[in-house]
Amino acid sequence: RRLDSRSGLAAGLLGEIQTPISTEPLESVYDITGELGRGKFAVVRRCVEKATGKVFAAKFLRKRRRGRDCRAEVIHEMAVLETARNNARVVNLHTAYETDHDIVLLLEYAAGGEIFDHCVSEELLPEAQITRLIRQTLEGVHHLHQSNLVHLDLKPQNILLTSLSPPGDIKIVDFGLARRLGVVGELREILGTPEYVAPEILNYEPITTATDLWSVGVIAYMLVTGESPFAGDDKQETYLNVSQVNVDYSREAFSRVSELAVDFVRKLLVKTPEDRPSAAECMSHPWLWQLCLSPDPATTRPRTVRERSCGTKWTAPPEDPEDK
Ligand code: ADP
Ligand code: MG
Q1: β-strand partners of 90
Q2: Measured between alpha carbons, how far is 296 from 229 in angstroms, rounded to an integer?
Q3: Hey, which of 46, 106, 117, 160 would you mutate to test ligand 1's pocket, going by the most ligand atoms within 8 Å of its Cβ?
Q4: Which residues are bridge partners to 55 per DSSP?
Q5: Is the ipTM of this complex over 0.90?
Q6: What angle, 0 to 180 degrees and rounded to 10, lies between the N-to-C axes of helices 127-146 and 259-268?
Q7: What are the residues facing 135 on neighbouring strands?
Q8: CA of 117 to the centre of ligand 1 (A)
Q9: 37 near 155, Cβ under 8 Å?
Q10: Better-predicted residue by pLDDT, 280 or 319
Q11: Quick one: which H or E segment has residue 46?
Q12: Which ligand lies nearest to the CA atom of residue 44 in the structure?
């Protein structure tokens, strides 16, 4: 993945943070107890606060990358997390440290790991669990978009779970490519992971909130089928699959789930961004609510789709197209 330096501040990096960055040694406050994940410029380690025994995830972000000072990118990632602080579906930023090489973000620990593990496992999740996780993801994305933030790197590796079994609630992580829209003209030229990026990114066309909705479609496809919809044998083939929206909707691929699942994914994996539903519009898709209506032997009274029993804290009503 690449963050074009020319797009830098011009592409709307946030520069202001509230969280103080401590220069005292991290090791005096925390015990580092293992590695949780690793990317090109970051390592995430599990650590335990000595005073309280509380577990955190420490994301060590390199300040120099490819011989260039990237402190501004790290500050931006912190600022985005701060902007999303009231969003329960986004991982919480606890505090930050700075060493010679890194800025270290102390993040709320998501003990359940990546939903990616549920996309490649022999045993895929039951449909009712998948729709619950997609509803939560849409809640998080909806809130981000309301703050004019786009994530731009949504994929099953960046959606974590608070617990593994039974699967807990989702936490969105990794705001390295996230941007604020509408600050300085159009946003283009940000490249995520080929398998998960929308056609407009490959074509260097303007990036909007709809770009994230494409990724939600990819995530839903993967949770349902256990396959990555656009992955080819090489980068070239993957790009071609994305730009031609070459997706397998065969009965075999979707054998485990209802036809509504296919309908949901089909509405998101469309080439023209304007033709994709918004996060709020997605929330009213019947696929996400059908299994909440299944009869509950404990109660006989009829339930409505908006009841708490669905395990969602969703409160914002889906947008009414009549209102526009
Ligand atoms: P990168 O920018 O390198 O992709 P991420 O923020 O995505 O960094 O973190 C890399 C991986 O580390 C994640 O995919 C996940 O497996 C793990 N990880 C990140 N944050 C947390 C967290 N708060 N709790 C548990 N694991 C985490
Ligand atoms: Mg990541």
Answers
A1: 172
A2: 34
A3: 160
A4: 48
A5: yes
A6: 30
A7: none
A8: 13
A9: no
A10: 280
A11: strand 42-49
A12: 1
Query: What is the average pLDDT across 44-69?
Result: 96
172 contacts 154 by C-beta, under 8 angstroms: yes
Q: What pLDDT does residue 184 have?
A: 56
At 263, the amino acid letter reads: D
Global pTM value: 0.89
| Separation of alpha carbons 86 and 96, rounded Å | 18
* 323 secondary structure, DSSP code: G
Element (H, E) at 176: none
- Residue carrying the six token digits 């909130």: 209
- With both helix axes pointing from N to C terminus, report the angle between 210-225 and 259-268 in degrees, rounded to the nearest 10: 150
Residue corresponding to tokens 């620990």: 109
* 104-119 per-position pLDDT tens digit: 999 999 999 999 999 9
| pLDDT at residue 29, rounded to an integer | 97
**171 assigned ligand-binding residue:** no
Task: Answer with the residue of higher pLDDT: 57 or 202.
Answer: 57
- The answer to whether the beta carbons of residues 158 and 119 sit under 8 Å apart is no
Report the DSSP pairing between strands 93-98 and 21-22. Answer: parallel
